[in-house]
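Subject: for your reference before the review

Hello V.,

The reviewers asked for a structural picture of the protein, and I figured it would be easier to keep everything in one thread rather than splitting it across files. Below is the amino acid sequence we used in the manuscript, unchanged from the supplementary table.
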Amino acid sequence: MDTPETQRAAPSFDAPERTMLDGWLDYHRTILLWKCEGLTDEQLRRRSVPPSQLSLLGLVRHMADVERGWFADFAQGDSTPLYYTDEQPDADFDAVAKADVAADLATLRREIETCRQLVADRNLDELETDARGRSISLRWIYTHMIEEYARHNGHADLLRECVDGATGDR
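And here is what came back from the structure prediction:
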């Protein structure tokens, strides 16, 4: 599959908190996209570590939903799930066999940009109440998203290694 080369920049070692959080989150966002570069649609759909249902495409779809779920919900944007439903709660991971790979990659890129814009001028200390009635700060969401991407990028590294032997983040 032809994909644009993902521009990756290491986060700053010395920056204000918001810049640091944005840098780390963007770093992890680009790592996932980079892990998908240069692979065919079938390679992106491949479930490389049986019995797991994980695939690189499933991770892309999952993170698009996670971006939307946390940031859009926080900013009262459209947080309607993209891939999963109440009836199929794991469809983001499971329903990749006939998925449109290019569209799913574009969706993740679009969700990232939309979420960046939704919270660009918001204060990290700002609180919103989630669906469970919990008060959550934007700082918490950033921290959680960095953790979520970092965990799934570890999965992506193993999946990519199974596909073609490529490893690492540089």
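For the response letter, the relevant points are probably these. The radius of gyration is 16 Å. The chain is about 55% helix and 5% strand.

Happy to draft the paragraph if you're swamped.

O.
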